[in-house]
Amino acid sequence: MDLASLQARLDAMAGARVIAVGDLMVDRFVHGEVSRVSAEAPVPILARSRENVMLGAAGNVARNIAALGGRANLVGVIGDDGVADEARRLVAEATDVQGWLIVDAGRSTTVKTRFVAAGQQLLRVDIEDLHALAAAVERSVVAAVRAASEGAGAILLSDYGKGVATPALIEACLDAAARSGSPLIVDSKARGFDRYGAANIIKPNALELARVTDLATETDAQVEAALARALALCRCGAVLVTRASQGMSLAVRGEPVRHFRRPAPEVFDTAGAGDTALAALGLALAGGADLAEAVEIALLASSRVVEKAGVAVVTAEEMLEAELSARRAPSDAKIATAARMLAEVARWRARGCRVGFTNGCFDILHPGHVAYLTQARQWCDKLIVGLNSDASVRRAKGEGRPVNGLEARATVLAGLACVDLVVSFDDETPLALIAQAKPDLLVKGGDYAPDAIIGAELVLQWGGEVRVAPFIEGHSTTATLRKAGARA
């Protein structure tokens, strides 16, 4: 899909109404730092620093629908407990999410609590009830589906196997889809797909498809065989399998299997990626996309969301930016505005990365520059280079400088493997850029005393480190220009 078509499809998705129904969860992330092991048992001690709480499963589908510009009707079951109060609050606070939350006093609200340090999960604790719904609760959920599906362009059923997706609920979803002409798409963790009747699309991941069919799902040929068997075992119209870095594969009854690919993303956290794919697929279809276009949009959305920490959502703007980045040369993608620098730094920090910063004119890149930048990158996980604009160089170096313009200098720097981001600044110093980035490490090349480096005081204030990377003797821009002038 070209960028114009993608923009048109994203615009068409805005305002479309989609129903998300099924298992509803609360996802809790407890973040902290581990610096020692308990004396009571060989386990790490997490010093808690913050906590994030968000809707999961069908709730996360609804969150993603809203983030992508749609309007979500959320139908789910909660218990009569404190976690249920959190679920109500989260739904009430969510923009463009309308909730039909049915209380079952005989069950606990499902909650997953993840303990995270340095971007890695240490432990997950689940509280859940797996028994089927009580008859009266089931009737209330069925009635809620009928009401919530009015005007919906797609019906999305999240079956995480927690007991909410009963035969009566599935039948209610099928009836609502038939009445409205909207597709019913099922994200299933079940061991069989026949229970979903003539659903339009069933969306397992590769492991779930393998479990249902008892077939391998590693290669394209194996996936095609497994999809054929899945269709033979159920009455659905199509099966869409998500395959992580290998993209997605779609089998429509009576048609050849189609494989959809994207450049493999930098995966940080896959939690909730299936919910994002389901939301984007359903919303795209509700907005008038054909099935192939909807799969491309779902793949793009899920590829973007796995680059984020936790159970996250993705926006239409982020999808456009991801598509633009995929079409740029790798070096071009490193050249960023200050605003994108902040977003990248936040993403790196969520992964526990140590962020470094250095700056300079880099008018003519020479071995001394390369050596010091390489050294700087060895001291951190991600290196930002602040680059003086042409006007800034002229003020610092005088007329005739820079020899190379900003675009050329930025392109050369971005081509270095040791550089992760290049951000230009127009001030005489990079102080404002440093204040925005808040790096963990500030590096300068040359023979500076650490306390004489611009920004050092700031970095030390927030607990960062300042280091000097020495240049290689005999290499400097001035010397290079002098030699070039003599030869000319």
Quote the distance from N terminus to C terminus. 51 Å
Helix amount, in percent?
Answer: 25-40%
Largest sheet report: 9 strands, mixed
Low-confidence stretches: none
Number of contiguous helices? 18
- In order across it, which strands form the biggest sheet? 5-4-1-8-9-10-11-12-13
How many extended strands?
19
Classification by helices and strands: alpha/beta
Let me know the average pLDDT.
Answer: 90
Gyration radius, to the nearest Å? 27 Å
Range of strand content: 15-25%
Shape assignment: elongated
Describe the structure.
Helices cover about 40% and strands about 25% of the residues. It is of the alpha/beta class. The longest helix has 15 residues, at about 290-305. The two termini are about 50 Å apart. About 45% of the residues are buried.
Which helices and strands, and how do they pair?
Blueprint: H1 3-13, E1 17-22, E2 24-37, E3 44-57, H2 58-67, E4 71-78, H3 82-93, E5 97-103, E6 110-117, E7 120-127, H4 135-148, E8 154-159, H5 167-180, E9 184-188, E10 201-202, H6 206-213, H7 220-232, E11 238-242, E12 248-252, E13 258-260, H8 273-286, H9 291-305, H10 316-327, H11 330-333, E14 335-336, H12 338-350, E15 355-360, H13 367-378, E16 382-388, H14 390-397, H15 406-414, E17 421-425, H16 431-437, E18 441-445, H17 456-461, E19 465-469, H18 477-487
Parallel strand pairs: 1-4, 1-8, 2-6, 4-5, 8-9, 9-10, 10-11, 14-17, 15-16, 15-18, 16-17, 18-19
Antiparallel strand pairs: 2-3, 6-7, 11-12, 12-13
